[in-house]
């Protein structure tokens, strides 16, 4: 079960400079954020670290975001974890059945103000105290 009071955001993207930018944006909003390299176990990082949300790229060389999303949704501990997809293929992804399993989809380049508002809305319980 997700820790709804957590202010932690996990970033999963093979473009390390972009992942670091997302971490900085999240930190600027009061989140504790960290990026994981694609080869790491995203599921394990999400559960052991207690992420409140995951920012997920889809097109990555080692393990694609579709597989990661299915792993997250197949496990009870991460089934309801909010996932925001940020990908160059966001437009085509929105027509995929897997798009129903995420809370938001953003194309690259990222609309930063809209993204930050969406992240804030999805994690509002973390800031209720």
Q: What number of structural domains do the residues give? A: 1
Q: Classify the secondary structure makeup into a structural class.
A: alpha/beta
How is the main sheet built? 5 strands, parallel
Helix content range: 25-40%
Helix tally equals 5
CATH architectural group: 3-Layer(aba) Sandwich
Instruction: Report strand order across the widest sheet.
Output: 2-1-3-4-5
Which fold name is given in CATH as the topology?
Rossmann fold
Assign the CATH class.
Answer: Alpha Beta
Task: Tell me what portion of residues adopts beta-strand conformation.
Answer: 15-25%
Q: Using the alpha-carbon principal axes, give the shape.
A: globular
Give the oligomer, counting copies of the same chain as homo and different chains as hetero: single chain
> Kindly, what is the distance between the CA atoms of the first and last residues, rounded to a whole number of angstroms?
19 Å
Instruction: Give the CATH superfamily.
Output: Response regulator
**Over all CA atoms, what is the radius of gyration?**
13 Å
Question: How would you describe what is shown here?
Answer:
- This protein is of the alpha/beta class and 129 residues long.
- It has one domain (8-122): 3-Layer(aba) Sandwich (Rossmann fold), CATH 3.40.50.
- 36% of the residues lie in helices and 18% in strands.
- It is built from five helices and five strands, in the order βαβαβαβαβα.
- The chain has helices at 16-28, 42-49, 65-74, 90-93, 112-122, and strands at 8-12, 32-36, 53-56, 83-87, 104-107.
- The protein has a five-stranded parallel β-sheet, with helices on both faces.
- It is globular, with a radius of gyration of 13 Å.
- The protein starts with 7 loop residues before the first strand and ends in a 7-residue tail after the last helix.
- The mean pLDDT is 87.
């Amino acid at each position: 079960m997700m820790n709804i009071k957590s202010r932690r955001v996990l970033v999963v993207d093979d473009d390390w400079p972009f992942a670091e930018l997302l971490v900085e944006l999240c930190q600027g909003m009061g989140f504790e954020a960290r990026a994981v390299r694609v080869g790491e176990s995203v599921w394990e990082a999400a559960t052991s670290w207690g992420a409140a949300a995951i920012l997920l790229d889809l097109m990555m060389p080692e393990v694609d975001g579709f597989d990661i999303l299915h792993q997250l949704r197949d496990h009870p501990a991460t089934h309801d974890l909010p996932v925001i997809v940020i990908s160059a293929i966001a437009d085509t992804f929105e027509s995929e059945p897997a798009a129903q399993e995420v809370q938001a989809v953003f194309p690259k380049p990222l609309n930063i103000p809209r993204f930050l508002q969406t992240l804030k809305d999805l994690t509002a319980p973390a800031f209720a105290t």
